Amino acid sequence: MTAANEPTRPRLVVFIVVDGLQSEHIMTIWNDLNKGGFKRLYTQGAVCNHAYYPIISTGSAADYASLVTGSTPFYHGIVGNTFYNRVTGETQPCLQDEKYNGIGTDDALSLRPLLASTCSDELKMNTAGKSKVFAIGIHSAETMLLAGHAGDGAVWVNRKTANLATSTFFSSGLPQWADQANVNHVVEDGIRSEWTPLYNISTYFFPATHPDAKQGFDYINNGASMTQIMTNYKHSPFVNTLVKDLAIKALTDEHLGQDAYPDFLGLEFTVQVAGDPSHELVSAEKEDMYLRLDNNIADLINKIDSYVGLNNTIIVLTSNQGEPHRQQTMTTYNIPSGQFVPVRSMALLNLYLMALYGQHQWVVGYHDKNIYLDHAAIEKKGISLNEMQQRCANFMLDLQGVQTAFTTQQIMDANANAHDEAARMKNSYNKHRSGDVVFSLMPGWVEADNKGNVLPINNGKTSYVPLLFFGDDIQPQQLPTHAITDLAPTLSWLLQTEFPNANIGSPISLIKKEVTTEEVRHDK
Question: Full-prediction pTM beyond 0.90?
Fold first, then answer.
């Protein structure tokens, strides 16, 4: 029995991350939105339009890890979707772990590389495992990170075949409702769906990227390979409908939010279209992604309301980092920009080091603006590692398009609480994953391969995303700017659990009605 003066906590948390979501886009198409979807969240929730990431974007996995841990790669260890492995000399997925097998996929993954607890982990420990935690998403790493170490299940779309997949890291395997979806070929049905505008094309704010005279635009998923077909599917509105339908199925089949122990459901959606890694809204296709997702969000909110009750639920909505504009747009509007080609630059750097220190492949690896040196050879020749790192940094600063370059020592000496580039580099640095020298590019510059193909890596100086809280006595309001690392401790505070063990954020106590100072937990 709950004492009269004991604060209640929600029975369900729905943690939604929409890849590419921007508040500015929502405002642009506001008049065309469903009143029960994004509009409901933005008008009835606590809204921070510009939550900032205190880290450098190197892939959405690092963003997701920071969202759920309230921390940064410096502590939680996930520096990007992939990282350079000094031992093998190869780039590997951030969650790769050969001790576990894939179910419905040949990817071997676990959450052991995530070095910190998540807000859902803390919920599990707080309720002695009685809370249920599930995550459903589009990509493997992002979905697993939403589920956390202690999650009951994580389900995502295989990147090579039309299957839902999971990892044996989750002891319950593939949930029955996901297995049944595979039996019913729901992913295949989505792949075969023809994508045309949801509404009359004349009502769209932006023109179609690939206009069709009859429909406005018309896409049939005919990729050259199954991998390409799955990539196309994961950048279509049909994958969002799949995630929504599975979320509703998990809600009812797992009886989420139906007892005194709070449950957690993490969801990954997207508004990113194929072939455009930027977060720019300039096409009818991306506008259509928003409009269809808006309807999915409305359906989900209505189901949660009828099954659990919004007064018993907290819905969180946020996004990952991304490049705000395409190179084509920058060029069109005469904004300075350029392409940095890492392969060429590393070849030049190694020639420079050979001229100083002798014939050897001193640069053994490069990944996401991190330069890796051959430590064994440097030690064998009695060369000062600090000296070589500084020479590398000085060389990089002379290259066109490079803004800053820092050595390991300079990064470690930086103030992580500052708001400059050195602080973001320190927060993004991890001693087990990062390089000897880390550099950044000038505004408008992007990384590209030898053929001029832009690599999907954000080079923005500061990344802002929306952060919304909705439901369970949340006070509708506009919030000031917050660090995205404040999200996890805010959820922990609302759930009355300990903060994640690497948390560096602070709870946003203003979001809840009738908050007393005694209710705020000081667990950091």
Answer: yes
